[in-house]
TrEMBL record:
GO BP of this protein: L-cysteine catabolic process to pyruvate; methylation
PANTHER family documented for this protein: UPF0597 PROTEIN YHAM
Protein name from the UniProt record: tRNA (Uracil-5-)-methyltransferase
EC number(s) per entry: 2.1.1.35
Organism from which the protein derives: Haemophilus influenzae R3021
Class of enzymatic activity (EC top level): transferase
Keyword tags: Methyltransferase, Transferase
Domain of life: Bacteria
Length: 122
């Protein structure tokens, strides 16, 4: 590949990175569940009494040991609880906040969050 062709490819890619990539806090699996939980809570219109989520075996495997920023905890339940309680769908991708840690722990302690594995698609 010649230098001219490389520059043609590089320019649009750099534009995308500079304009479309935004800061994110957390790892993919807990954040995906947090965003899903926030969306569900928004449409429910209130804080849910319990949270039941079915995730793929892969998301479960990858999400169980991932630390959730600002909590000192790992796993999917804390991510789901924190986002449902925040009543905010998305502030860019910074969707987990340490301010909700105490309330989230109460939900987890009351065991109202259930994460289950769904059957894989055929």
């Amino acid at each position: 590949m010649n230098l001219e062709r490389l520059n043609e490819i590089e320019k649009p890619l750099l534009h995308i990175v500079k304009h479309d990539v935004v800061p994110a806090l957390g790892c993919t699996e807990p954040i995906s569940l947090a965003l899903e939980s926030a969306t569900a809570a928004k449409y429910l219109g209130k804080t849910p009494e319990r949270i039941e989520v079915k995730v793929s075996p892969n998301l479960m495997k990858n999400g169980l040991g991932v630390a959730v920023p600002g909590t000192g905890m790992v796993g999917l339940p804390i991510a789901a609880a924190m986002k449902v309680l925040s009543n905010t769908i998305l502030i860019e991708l910074l969707i987990i906040s340490a301010l909700l840690h105490q309330k989230s722990m109460q939900h987890i302690d009351r065991q109202v969050i259930k994460i289950m594995v769904s059957k894989p698609c055929p």
